[in-house]
Known about the structure:
7 helices, membrane, transmembrane helix
Amino acid sequence: MEGIYFYWLSWLIWIIYTFFMRKDRFRLFVCSHLLLLIILSAHEMTIGPFQFSFAYLFLLAVAYQFVMKRRGRAFIYFAFASAIVTITYVSFHLLALFDPVWIFMNETWMLACMLVCVTFALYRPFFSRLLLLTVGCCQGEFLYSFILRQFSFHNLIGSLFFFDGWMLSVSFLFAWRFFEQLPTYVDSLFQRRMKEMKT
């Protein structure tokens, strides 16, 4: 069922950040944007020969706003990195379409694992990885639909299948960030308990 990963994981991340994370700007950003994506995912629009979901256009616009803040070498490197993720996304989908025998596991999980591995190889900071993954997936989705258009195949750009793969990849990034920060959290908790015992 298309959309099951997107909706379940979106609500899971929203609940975690709403009720368990400290109140800061990133928490507000994550919660508000996830709700908007869920709402907009049910609506579509046509621009020229292409059909877009509102959620896809919203996600792309937000991602490009952050990309435009990069300057100089950082922007050039990000452009090359996002091109690599875009090519990975398109290549996987074309392979699944024309030679599906190579898809040896669930397609969504396989795509998410490939995208996360490429993202991890290109960037270390969490926010850069998240932005790279989002931009690469969005560009790849459009390029893949453009290629299909040449063969007279119609494809909704930003379908629930797209959001399933993107959200599963994003969830991997959030899980990795949690495990990276877990030792620091445990250490600070231990230090606080030790201070309480001494007083």
